[in-house]
Amino acid sequence: MNKKEVDNKGVFIIYTGGTIGSMPKDPNDPDSPQVVVSWEKFKELTPQLAEDYLHFKVDAYSTQPLDSCNIGPKEWKEMADVIKKNYNDYEGFVILHGTDTMVYTASALSFMLKNLAKPVIITGAQLAFLFNVRNDGFQNMITALQIANPKYSKIPVIPEVCIYFGGKLLRGNRCRKINASGFEAYQSPNYSPLGAAGESISVDERLILKLPQGKTFTTQTRMEKNVVAINFFPGIQDGDILKNILSDEKLKGVVLMAYGAGNIPTKTEVMQYIKEVTDRGVVVLDVTQCGGGKVELGMYETSALLLDVGVVSGVDITPEAALTKLMLLLGDEDMTPHEVALKVQQNIAGEQSLSIYTTEFKSKENQVDTENNRVRIPAADIEGNWETADQIDRIMLRFRNGKIQKKSEKTYVDIKLFINIESNETLDEAGDKFLGTFSRIPNDTPTILFFDITEKARRLLEKRSSFTVVMASEGFFTWDSVELTVFKKETI
């Protein structure tokens, strides 16, 4: 487009520094250490930011220019405040940022900016264009500006915080930095790129977040800083490092960067350390340290033990998004640690593929045996916001501190489950309220007992539901509490 649109509001840049704004400290020595220049100097050396070149206006705000290693909650709040102040006056926003902590900033802002209806595009450079003829910074910046101005570029509005880098447009809270020097520095391991830029800019509308309808843009910027990420490695269970970290009384949240599908060493002392912190209200979130995939708490014995000691699942969230999400939720003074532990498992800004909703049932009866072989767990309002059964990925009925003992020589004890049965209603295994028979090996040590009821409960689960537990063979089944966990697919 060669002619400026009269009603185009242009783009607002937030300049934070980083490699994209760096030059050698000694102008006469290109090999001298690089320092971040001021916005005034940056603009002077970048005539392409002029309106005659871009065909739309660009205004800017500069934070204290920093290497991105020095950016944190204070700077994130400043960026969010600047966007809020200028929100109605521009088509979108571009943040020029260093590459080292760009993913943290993108994740934090995705949670801070509520009901976002405009693009916020973060970009930077591996090679600064201010003094390198061969560089990636210039194209990253110009393309980010065009993506942030959908009216000019004739592309869909992308109402989310994104990273544009190396030709790819990625959801910010899905990114990880995978290369310290290459031009394609970022990947989104569990979510496809939102778009790409080559000869033209293309956006996959199926993947971007929906525009908020009838909701006012706002910000939430208070963050709890006493949160830590712990990367597990062979040997951590044998030293005092883990104990020393978790014994800090100021600690409010922990991200466990676990092996594989969420596993950590099952050494008794390790589990005791974790139980002690969850008992005092610290929220502990389990994520995988792998480059992709998701946490499956309960799939293996090691991760099932984590549920026993109060750890919650991060599903497929990245460690960077997990940390900033936990910081933000814990920063909400109106939420209790228990509420945070439930909320952190749910998708907020497209950061995870599943949301976990937990409904806790209140019941005076917590035992079913051969003589009294039927217990009804009273109905509760089921947590979750799905509209169709197809949106439900999995449904688990959990009995905390469950213990099963047998009264015969059988290896297994059989338990039958029903949904929405009245107290005096006849139990009909051929009826549509029968969820199935589940064989369990007796256990002397109380633990969380899982019953996967997905197959039938997916279509039978109502907004208010009850469950009935029946002993189908001789034995005792006791528990402390019951909860229903629904895994909802987050389709965008």
Key phrases:
492 residues; Rossmann fold; Jelly Rolls; 3 domains; eight-stranded mixed beta sheet; 12 helices; 28 strands
Description of the molecule:
The chain has 12 helices and 28 strands. The mean pLDDT is 93. It is elongated, with a radius of gyration of 26 Å. The chain is α/β, with parallel strands linked by helices and 492 residues long. The two termini are 31 Å apart. Helices cover 21% and strands 31% of the residues. The protein folds into 3 domains: 11-215, Rossmann fold; 227-352, Rossmann fold (3-Layer(aba) Sandwich), CATH 3.40.50.40; 367-489, Sandwich (Jelly Rolls). The strands form 7 sheets. Strands 4-1-5-7-8-9-12-13 form an 8-stranded mixed β-sheet, sandwiched between helices.
Low-confidence parts, pLDDT < 50 over ≥5 residues?
A: none
Helix content: 10-25%
Helix count, per DSSP?
12
The separation of the N and C termini measures 31 Å
Secondary-structure class: alpha/beta
In spatial order, strands of the major sheet run 4-1-5-7-8-9-12-13
Major sheet description: 8 strands, mixed
Radius of gyration: 26 Å
Number of strands: 28
The second-level CATH architecture of the largest domain is 3-Layer(aba) Sandwich
Number of domains: 3
Specify the CATH homologous superfamily of the largest domain: L-asparaginase, N-terminal domain
Average pLDDT, all residues: 93
The CATH topology assignment of the largest domain is Rossmann fold
Strand content: 25-35%
Shape: elongated
CATH level-1 class of the largest domain: Alpha Beta
